[in-house]
Amino acid sequence: MTDPLSPIATEPAEEPVIEFSNVSITFDRDPVLQKVGFHVQRGQTCILLGPAGGGKSVLMKLANGLLQPDCGTVRIFGEDLARLSQREMFLLRSRIGMVFQESALFDSLTVEDNVAYRLNEEKVPEEEAHKRVLEALRFVELEQAVSKFPPELSGGMRRRVSIARAIITQPELTLYDSPTGGLDPITSTTIIELVVKQRDVSGTTALLITHRLQDAFTLATHRFNQATGHMEPIPDNGIDPSTRFLVLNEGHIVFDGSTQELVGTDDPWLKAYIA
Amino acid sequence: MKLVSPGAFAKSIVASVQGYSLLTGRAIAALFSPPHYFADTFIQLDSIGVGSVPIVILAGFFTGAVLTLQSTTTLKQFGAVDLTGRLVSLSMIKELGPVLTGLMVSGRNASGMASELGSMKVSEQIDAMRALGTDPIRKLVTPRIVATVSMLFFLTMISDTMGIAGGALVAVTLLRQSGAAFFHNAISALVMGDVVEGLTKPIFSGFLIATIGCYYGLSTSGGTRGVGKATTQAVVTSSVLLIIVDTLVTKLMIGIFGR
């Protein structure tokens, strides 16, 4: 078994970061995903769209090994998740950051302890952990909330803390499960700006679920300007080449392609969906 | 009430036993390999142990007191009032102390564990923990098992002591019996086997309470309604199993010590 913590040893340059092959999963006799196959290359941002109940969150959990498929193969960083032991799976997850739909912050811990959770598990010295927590919170512009508890925060703030917690160890892959779900448009834009910032500043591979098409297209058409510290449209109606779309409906992938291909699709269902 | 087929019901039972066995096995295995969560264990020792002291003192004291009142009435008919201390100490140490303490701790802590872990489950905090590279069984279940088993042992001792004290107080103040005779009879009636029996039971009870509370908590589904259901099931199942296991341990101890 190769060491999941050594990327150089495990991954040839062209190997996809995420690779699903014929993945199916059923809950209570209801098929949720059926023969799903796709891959995400290093540095790409894959946006997962689709109607509610289509299996997007299940797919996300499969990508992090939180669920196991009934059949098919899920490979992350070239590792077949079904062949990993519990311990190897936990080591692999240290290379993955995940933002949950409802933030999933630990209510009994302060913002600082939530964000530092992984560092504390890795026994990082307290002083260094505190410094890195402040850096991560500065990234999401929430430095002032360091000593608050999650119930004291608004929905948008909780989501930002969740992003800070996911990126504090600078993971190679970030999974965003509806990071803007249930938020107002202004807060949603703030969250999307953070995702764009993380993509453009760190070049992290990402898989992102969203129900808001405008968020998806903002991701595809904007970039982060480090000089101004803000997100801006890519000049000349440009489109970010690393952004791809995946559309899931009733457990099947109905679209897998670039932004241009999605916009120019002839499929009547897809046209109606993105209209 | 929704009716299910016998086949589906049998499958769900088998799946539950399998899930419980896997959880228990992994929680025990976690004791023998790092990382160990000592801070979480100390928090649970405080929460389960120290937090349960008041109810255990009250329950033990008044059980001993009422036992004295009830038994004296009967013993008086046979002219054996002097045996009250003997009866109270044997009953408390061999049976009532361990069982009542177990039931008290089950009501307080199996429900607490099921509701706390259940809330974490439905709000995806358990998944978040796994996503952050932590084994929830190692961090949440093992410390609770260690804390419940070790603290129930000491809580039972407190309950036994308070039961005998409550019995003595009633015997001396209300029934005008001799305190010295009460304590003499109470202590001379006991042999090592009685004490071993009384202190073996909480080890089994503590293990059951913690594992069942955690199992129902981590199996919760269906939002806040599911948390309520898991809490109820945890208390009912742990209480019933506690009494069943108590019977089996009693039978085993009678086999070993002959009394």
Structural overview:
The complex is a heterodimer of chains A (275) and B (259). With 275 residues, chain A is an alpha/beta fold. Chain A has 2 domains: 7-95 and 173-274, 3-Layer(aba) Sandwich (Rossmann fold); 101-170, no CATH class. Chain A has 11 helices and 12 strands. Chain A has helices at 7-10, 56-63, 86-93, 111-115, 117-121, 126-139, 155-167, 185-202, 213-221, 259-263, 268-274, and strands at residues 18-27, 30-40, 45-49, 71-76, 79-80, 96-99, 173-177, 205-209, 222-225, 230-233, 243-249, 252-258. In chain A, the strands form 3 sheets. Chain A has a 6-stranded mixed sheet, sandwiched between helices. In chain A, strand 11 and strand 12 form a beta hairpin. In chain A, helix 6 crosses helix 7. Chain A starts with 6 loop residues before the first helix and ends with a helix. The model of chain A is unreliable at 1-12 (pLDDT under 50). In chain B, helix 3 (84-122) packs across helix 6 (179-188) and helix 3 packs antiparallel against helix 8. The longest helix of chain B has 40 residues, at 38-77. The radius of gyration of chain B is 21 Å and the shape is elongated. Chain B has one domain (6-257). Chain B is mostly helical and 259 residues long. Chain B is 85% helix and 0% strand. Chain B has helices spanning 6-29, 38-77, 84-122, 125-131, 136-173, 179-188, 192-218, 223-257. Chain B contains 8 helices and no strands. The interface between A and B is medium-sized, with 21 and 13 residues.
